[in-house]
Amino acid sequence: MAVFMKGKDLVTLHDWTSEEIWQTIRTAELIKTMSYTGQPYTPLTGKTLGMVFTKPSTRTRVSFEVAIYQLGGYALFLSAQELQLRRGESIADTARVLSRYLDGIMIRTYAHRDVEELAQYACIPVINGLTDYVHPCQALSDIFTIYEKLGRLQGVKLAYLGDGNNVCHSLMFAGAKVGMDVIASVPEGYEPNEQVIRLAREDARATGASFHIERDPRRAVKDCDVVYTDVWASMGQEAEHAARLKVLQPYQVNAGLLAHAKPSALFMHCLPAHRGEEVTDEVADSPQSIIFDQAENRLHMQKAILALVM
Ligand code: CP
Ligand code: NVA
To answer: Which SS3 state, helix, strand or coil, does residue 129 take?
Structure first.
């Protein structure tokens, strides 16, 4: 059954139903096949997406910009530095004004509350392109990538190693909605947010998914289908970099650790990677690594999200 998603915001994946998430995956699959066979698909002709950034980006910016262009629409890059927001205009007024010009807003920023507020006051879809709390577009394309590689999501075991950050939170929300078993292997003090753990466990009850923390990285990767990591110091945490390196070192994904996983286990990373820190070159460039397929799927997934909500 098709679900009507036009006008929906994407603030966190906890807000989306399993049906909506599955429909987005199927749409991404279809759009990817169409693009590989050269069939144009331009449902957003004449539509404009505003893209607000207060943090840097390579993948999210380029994939959204190319996605809306290929769907027939136009992308407007809005550096938050150059908006009146910087001079104190409220988020609510910015949302009301942008809603009069645009057909959708994608925003990447620090405070998650700012995205919630933008979505509250905008009457066009607001898509979260990463906050300190979550990175939903990343997790959607990650589960799409896992589905392509393994042909299923139900019961897939994913071990996330390192810092229990925004990427980890979205993988937990996504996994809970599609029946995956997510294990976070994190040191003390770097656990995922308690609210995310509670909400993901609530969602997991309906799908048979599970979530648990395993301190020992070797035990965490044992029997896993996917080993996932992300940077140890996220954007905005640069000052903590040195301290984090020390604490997180035992969670580095290197060949020694990967040897404790099944030989068929896939390695994933949202990128950008700090090679030599959370992952070694040997693993990132190994046949088990699917990091560039994962990055490519950001494009197909952004198209699916835009086509469905705009
Ligand atoms: N993975 C990801 O969001 O990359 P960017 O920071 O380059 O957008
Ligand atoms: N956790 C990282 C993800 C980057 C895509 C960060 O927030 O910087």
So the answer is: coil
Query: 230 C-alpha vs ligand 2 centroid, how far in Å?
Result: 7
80, pLDDT greater than 90? no
Same domain, 24 and 119: yes
**Which entry of 270, 288, 300, 302 is annotated as an active-site residue?**
270
Residues 271 and 215 in one domain: yes
Catalytic residue at 120?
no
Among 14, 135, 269, 300, the active-site one is 135
Do residues 180 and 117 both lie within one domain? no
Q: Is 230 annotated in the active site?
A: yes
Query: Beta 48-53 vs 104-108: how paired, if at all?
Result: parallel
Is 135 marked active-site?
yes
Q: Given the residues 230, 269, 288, 294, select the one marked as catalytic.
A: 230
From residue 38, how far is each of 35, 41, 138, 222, 303 by CA, in Å? Answer: 5, 9, 25, 41, 15
Q: Could you give the number of structural domains in the chain?
A: 2
pLDDT in tens, 146-158: 999 999 999 999 9
CB atoms within 10 A of CB 308: 21
The ligand that comes nearest to the alpha carbon of residue 133 is 2
What's the pTM? 0.98
Q: Which ligand is nearest to the CA of 295?
A: 1
Those residues with Cβ within 8 angstroms of residue 67's Cβ, 6 or more apart along the chain or in another chain: 299, 302, 303, 306
pLDDT digits (tens, 9 = 90+) for 81-134: 899 999 999 999 999 999 999 999 999 999 999 999 999 999 999 999 999 999
Give the ligand whose atoms come closest to the C-alpha of residue 138.
1
The number of the ligand 1 atom at minimal distance from the alpha carbon of 235 is 6
Range of the domain at 200: 136-295
17 belongs to a structural domain = yes
User: Is the domain of 159 the same as that of 209?
Assistant: yes
Calculate the dihedral angle through the C-alpha atoms of 77, 32, 152, 63, rounding to the nearest 10 degrees: -20
Q: Which of ligand 1's atoms lies nearest the C-alpha of 63?
A: 8
**Same domain assignment for residues 169 and 282:** yes
